[in-house]
Write a structure and sequence with these properties.
calcium; binds 2-acetamido-2-deoxy-beta-D-glucopyranose; 7 helices; lectin; ConA-like_dom_sf; carbohydrate binding; elongated; metal-binding; 22% helix; Jelly Rolls
Length: 415
């Protein structure tokens, strides 16, 4: 029995799973689960002089899946927000880098970001702001109807490079988990709520390096290159007498007017009309060119400017994680910030936090929405014509419904 239970393959499987979990290296994990977060995060002085530095609220928000599970939320409109935390400096060389956090826009966000930044050593946290150089910027960004995307900006050779692929972000008022995974083989993945939304290579999805191949600048189309797809048929002959067909002919229907006087008016000639037989100058019909070589394409050559960088994915001195935002409408709540080397670990953390709470949060949100709608219809006097705005229109709809109900009721009474 025992030997069956503990056969070598089972043992190695157990050992392997233990190792897989134990081997996760966590560089930074912030769950905001105690008041101590303020000692770990440094609020920047950026925009303080102008009274435009916004305050953070330590809260689980207006709706949540667990009132005790708090995060930090922007709490003032028309403000800049800049806050960062430090972790022991590390390089992601030869490691997978996982950057994950959750964000909830409780305000109906018209225009604003929900992204975070990874920064490298050499910055002053008290001066952290919009101009502070960063290494990675990642997360959702919404502005109007046109911008609803996940940013993934990588800084390479002191230049910020945007991802070239569109990755749509979530736009509702609930918590979502955003995960960026960067691997030593220079591939990446973007996950939302533990579901992969985009994946690919740093080489193809960002322009970090000059292109590998370019069009040969020396190449010229050969003089005798035949790129005419169709040619006149050499077999086609002009029909006999074709050129004798006149363009115009006398109108056969025209009649000499009755009062025409040849002596006084001269000899009558009928007006002319377009000859229906006339087909224009003769052209041979077109046939496929048997010598057609296709459109000429400039040949591609190796780009002399391209030098591969096997460390294209490496950020050698990662040291800070920060939030730097401008918010017109506040209410964005960040939580569960994680920087580690293990996508499995990140997935589990997301499942234990967002995953466990999402249904209760949705129910709380629906409840809050119901309350809000009730309040609004109470606040709006039903028959107020003063402002023809949307709220009134909604109230009018409600009134129409009530009238319909009344009619139905009276109909029942009569029966
Ligand atoms: C912080 O958030 C809670 C929950 O949404 C709210 O009741 C409270 O008014 C907020 N405080 C500030 C200072 O914004
Ligand atoms: C780095 O940037 C500089 C200045 O823009 C440029 O001249 C150089 O070619 C770049 N190097 C690489 C490897 O892209």
């Amino acid at each position: 029995m025992a030997s069956e239970r503990w056969n070598p393959s089972v043992v190695s499987l157990i050992l392997f799973s233990l190792l897989a979990i134990a081997s996760a290296e966590v560089f930074f994990e912030e769950r905001f689960d105690d008041g101590g977060w303020e000692n770990r995060w440094v609020k920047s002085d950026w925009k303080k002089d102008e009274n435009l530095a916004g305050e953070w609220n330590f809260t689980s928000g207006k709706w949540n899946g667990d009132a005790e599970d708090k995060g930090i939320q922007t709490s003032e409109d028309y403000r800049f927000y800049a806050i960062s935390a430090e972790f022991p400096e590390f390089s992601n060389k030869d490691k997978t880098l996982v950057f994950q956090f959750s964000v909830k826009h409780e305000q109906k966000l018209d225009c604003g970001g929900g992204y975070m930044k990874l920064l490298s050593s050499g910055i002053d946290q008290k001066k952290f702001g919009g101009d502070t150089p960063y290494s990675i910027m990642f997360g959702p960004d919404i502005c109007g109807y046109s911008t609803k995307k996940v940013h993934a900006i990588l800084t390479y050779n002191d230049t910020n490079h945007l991802i070239k692929k569109e990755v749509p972000c979530e736009t509702d008022q609930l918590t979502h988990v955003y995960t960026f995974i960067l691997r030593p083989d220079a591939t990446y993945s973007i996950l939302i709520d533990n579901v992969e939304k985009q994946t690919g290579s740093l080489y193809s999805d960002w322009d970090l390096l000059p292109p590998k191949k370019i069009k040969d600048p020396e190449a010229k189309k050969p003089e005798d290159w035949d790129d005419k797809e169709f040619i006149p048929d050499p077999e086609d002959k002009k029909p006999e007498g074709y050129d004798d067909i006149p363009k115009e002919i006398p109108d056969p229907d025209a009649k000499k007017p009755e009062d025409w006087d040849d002596e006084e008016d001269g000899e009558w000639t009928p007006p002319t009309m377009d000859n229906p037989e006339y087909k224009g100058p003769w052209k041979a019909k077109k046939i496929k060119n048997p010598n057609y070589q296709g459109k000429w394409k400039t040949p591609m050559i190796d780009n002399p400017e391209f030098k591969d960088d096997p460390e294209i994915y490496v950020f050698p001195k990662l040291k800070y994680v920060g939030i730097e935002l401008w918010q017109v409408k506040s209410g964005t709540l960040f939580d569960n910030v994680l920087i580690c080397d293990d996508p499995e670990y990140a997935m589990k953390l997301a499942e234990e936090t967002w995953g466990k709470q999402k249904d209760a949060e949705k129910a709380a949100f629906d409840e809050a929405e119901k309350k809000r709608e009730e309040e609004e219809s109470k606040d709006d006097p039903v028959d107020s014509d003063a402002e023809g705005d949307d709220d009134d229109a909604e109230a009018d709809d409600d009134e129409t419904d009530k009238e319909a109900d009344d009619t139905e009721e009276s109909a029942h009474d009569e029966l």
